[in-house]
Amino acid sequence: MQIVVLKESSADEFRVALVPESVKKLVAAGNKISGEAGAGLLAGASDADYEQAGAEIFSSQAEMLQKAGVLLAINFIYAPTNLAATIPVHASQLFSRNLTTFCNLPAKDGALNLDFSDDILDGSCVAHQGEIRHERIKTNYKLRING
Predict the structure, then answer these.
(1) What pLDDT is recorded for position 146?
(2) Is the whole-model pTM more than 0.90?
(3) Does some domain include residue 87?
(4) What is the pLDDT of residue 129?
(5) Helix (H, G, I), strand (E, B) or coil at 25
(6) Which domain holds residue 119?
(7) Which of 43, 59, 112, 138 is the most exposed place for a label (fewest CB within 10 A)?
(8) 34 DSSP β-pair partners
(9) What secondary structure letter does DSSP report for 43?
(10) Is residue 9 part of a domain?
(11) How many CA atoms lie within 13 A of 101 on its CB side?
(12) CB atoms within 10 A of CB 36
Protein backbone atom coordinates (compact mmCIF):
# COMPACT_ATOMS: atom_id res chain seq x y z
CA MET A 1 0.00 0.00 0.00
CA GLN A 2 1.23 3.52 -0.79
CA ILE A 3 0.97 5.83 2.23
CA VAL A 4 1.53 9.57 1.85
CA VAL A 5 2.33 11.97 4.70
CA LEU A 6 1.57 15.63 4.05
CA LYS A 7 3.21 18.68 5.58
CA GLU A 8 0.64 20.48 7.68
CA SER A 9 -0.78 23.64 6.13
CA SER A 10 -1.72 25.44 9.34
CA ALA A 11 0.96 27.78 10.71
CA ASP A 12 0.11 26.82 14.29
CA GLU A 13 0.26 23.04 13.74
CA PHE A 14 3.48 21.47 15.01
CA ARG A 15 2.46 17.80 14.84
CA VAL A 16 3.03 15.38 11.99
CA ALA A 17 0.74 12.49 11.06
CA LEU A 18 3.48 9.84 10.96
CA VAL A 19 6.83 9.85 12.79
CA PRO A 20 9.97 8.09 11.47
CA GLU A 21 9.67 5.28 14.04
CA SER A 22 6.23 4.42 12.63
CA VAL A 23 7.54 4.70 9.07
CA LYS A 24 10.09 1.95 9.84
CA LYS A 25 7.32 -0.36 11.04
CA LEU A 26 5.06 0.32 8.08
CA VAL A 27 7.92 -0.18 5.61
CA ALA A 28 8.87 -3.44 7.35
CA ALA A 29 5.27 -4.56 6.88
CA GLY A 30 5.61 -4.05 3.11
CA ASN A 31 4.16 -0.56 2.68
CA LYS A 32 5.64 2.26 0.61
CA ILE A 33 5.80 5.61 2.37
CA SER A 34 6.11 9.01 0.71
CA GLY A 35 6.55 12.19 2.68
CA GLU A 36 6.30 15.82 1.70
CA ALA A 37 9.57 17.67 2.22
CA GLY A 38 9.63 19.30 5.64
CA ALA A 39 6.58 17.42 6.92
CA GLY A 40 8.19 16.50 10.23
CA LEU A 41 10.46 19.48 10.86
CA LEU A 42 8.22 21.22 13.41
CA ALA A 43 7.76 17.91 15.22
CA GLY A 44 11.53 17.41 15.46
CA ALA A 45 12.06 14.99 12.56
CA SER A 46 14.15 15.88 9.52
CA ASP A 47 13.70 14.65 5.96
CA ALA A 48 16.86 12.59 6.50
CA ASP A 49 15.17 10.89 9.49
CA TYR A 50 12.31 9.87 7.22
CA GLU A 51 14.62 8.70 4.45
CA GLN A 52 16.63 6.60 6.93
CA ALA A 53 13.33 5.06 8.05
CA GLY A 54 12.55 4.09 4.45
CA ALA A 55 10.35 6.93 3.19
CA GLU A 56 10.74 8.69 -0.12
CA ILE A 57 10.66 12.52 0.13
CA PHE A 58 8.84 14.65 -2.44
CA SER A 59 8.66 18.41 -2.82
CA SER A 60 5.48 18.35 -4.91
CA GLN A 61 2.20 17.69 -3.12
CA ALA A 62 0.50 17.14 -6.49
CA GLU A 63 2.97 14.36 -7.38
CA MET A 64 2.42 12.66 -4.03
CA LEU A 65 -1.37 12.91 -4.20
CA GLN A 66 -1.36 11.03 -7.50
CA LYS A 67 0.43 8.11 -5.83
CA ALA A 68 -1.54 8.06 -2.57
CA GLY A 69 -3.43 4.96 -1.57
CA VAL A 70 -3.76 6.35 1.96
CA LEU A 71 -3.28 10.03 2.76
CA LEU A 72 -2.19 11.00 6.28
CA ALA A 73 -2.45 14.52 7.71
CA ILE A 74 -3.43 16.09 11.01
CA ASN A 75 -5.35 19.01 9.49
CA PHE A 76 -5.95 18.28 5.83
CA ILE A 77 -6.06 21.33 3.56
CA TYR A 78 -9.82 21.11 3.01
CA ALA A 79 -10.79 20.25 6.59
CA PRO A 80 -11.66 22.79 9.27
CA THR A 81 -8.86 23.17 11.79
CA ASN A 82 -11.37 23.52 14.63
CA LEU A 83 -13.44 20.41 13.86
CA ALA A 84 -13.35 19.22 17.47
CA ALA A 85 -14.80 22.56 18.60
CA THR A 86 -17.83 22.02 16.37
CA ILE A 87 -18.65 18.72 18.10
CA PRO A 88 -17.41 19.29 21.67
CA VAL A 89 -19.37 16.51 23.38
CA HIS A 90 -18.25 13.80 20.97
CA ALA A 91 -14.69 15.12 20.79
CA SER A 92 -14.48 15.14 24.59
CA GLN A 93 -15.86 11.60 24.80
CA LEU A 94 -13.34 10.34 22.25
CA PHE A 95 -10.45 12.15 23.94
CA SER A 96 -11.52 10.81 27.33
CA ARG A 97 -11.77 7.25 25.99
CA ASN A 98 -8.31 7.52 24.44
CA LEU A 99 -6.79 8.84 27.67
CA THR A 100 -8.52 6.14 29.72
CA THR A 101 -7.22 3.43 27.42
CA PHE A 102 -3.72 4.92 27.53
CA CYS A 103 -3.74 5.22 31.33
CA ASN A 104 -4.92 1.63 31.70
CA LEU A 105 -2.11 0.36 29.46
CA PRO A 106 0.57 0.29 32.19
CA ALA A 107 -1.86 -0.62 34.99
CA LYS A 108 -2.12 -4.32 35.69
CA ASP A 109 -4.17 -5.47 38.70
CA GLY A 110 -3.96 -2.02 40.29
CA ALA A 111 -0.17 -1.81 40.07
CA LEU A 112 2.03 0.16 37.69
CA ASN A 113 3.72 -2.19 35.21
CA LEU A 114 5.93 -0.36 32.74
CA ASP A 115 6.53 -2.77 29.88
CA PHE A 116 8.82 -0.84 27.55
CA SER A 117 8.56 -3.56 24.89
CA ASP A 118 5.12 -2.03 24.19
CA ASP A 119 5.67 0.52 21.40
CA ILE A 120 3.00 2.92 22.64
CA LEU A 121 4.26 2.99 26.20
CA ASP A 122 7.91 3.14 25.17
CA GLY A 123 7.32 5.94 22.66
CA SER A 124 5.33 8.06 25.09
CA CYS A 125 7.55 7.72 28.15
CA VAL A 126 9.68 10.83 28.55
CA ALA A 127 11.52 9.93 31.75
CA HIS A 128 11.81 6.91 34.06
CA GLN A 129 13.80 6.43 37.27
CA GLY A 130 15.55 9.79 36.94
CA GLU A 131 16.70 9.25 33.35
CA ILE A 132 15.31 10.72 30.14
CA ARG A 133 14.18 7.82 27.94
CA HIS A 134 12.84 9.75 24.97
CA GLU A 135 15.75 10.17 22.54
CA ARG A 136 14.33 13.16 20.69
CA ILE A 137 13.90 15.09 23.93
CA LYS A 138 17.44 14.18 24.97
CA THR A 139 18.81 15.37 21.64
CA ASN A 140 16.69 18.46 21.03
CA TYR A 141 16.60 19.95 24.47
CA LYS A 142 19.78 18.50 25.98
CA LEU A 143 18.11 18.00 29.31
CA ARG A 144 20.02 16.39 32.15
CA ILE A 145 18.36 14.73 35.13
CA ASN A 146 20.46 13.89 38.17
CA GLY A 147 23.50 15.32 36.57
Answers:
(1) 47
(2) no
(3) no
(4) 77
(5) helix
(6) 103-147
(7) 112
(8) 4, 56
(9) G
(10) yes
(11) 7
(12) 23
